[in-house]
Hints:
GO terms for molecular function: 5S rRNA binding; structural constituent of ribosome. By secondary structure, this protein is mainly α. It has a domain at 2-102 and 148-154: Nucleotidyltransferase, domain 5 (2-Layer Sandwich), CATH 3.30.420. The protein contains eight helices and three strands. A three-stranded antiparallel sheet has the order 1-2-3. The radius of gyration is 16 Å and the shape is elongated. The model has no long low-confidence stretch (mean pLDDT 93).
Amino acid sequence: xxxxxxxxxxxxxxxxxxxxxxxxxxxxxxxxxxxxxxxxxxxxxxxxxxxxxxxxxxxxxxxxxxxxxxxxxxxxxxxxxxxxxxxxxxxxxxxxxxxxxxxxxxxxxxxxxxxxxxxxxxxxxxxxxxxxxxxxxxxxxxxxxxxxxxxxxxxxxxx
Length: 159
């Protein structure tokens, strides 16, 4: 799992004698193909990356995984935790405490939508959400977008 300045990516490895083999991977750029118009490094994007990774893992016959973050610490409620939540929601068995995973409302982006609504009538809205304003995306639609993209990912993996 890796979070860069712009994207989130995650891989599922299987250990072998000659070295680890990648059996499934997902990247937040892939979300754009399914209609994602928001930040590719946000907590909801991380959740969807985990969801896609979980779907792909199940498709190749992997039903469980153990999180390895390397030198990065696992921080409860973080984007790493959101990837785990997404993989679990897809059906992949990943051990993690429910308390460590982000709330469902944060995974949907409710916090972004509420913040956008609170700033809408102030001059700060255009400043804080300038990228979204330029692209024509209304950040108050975050929860709807998450559900739409999640459904498309599930549909794409079913075929």
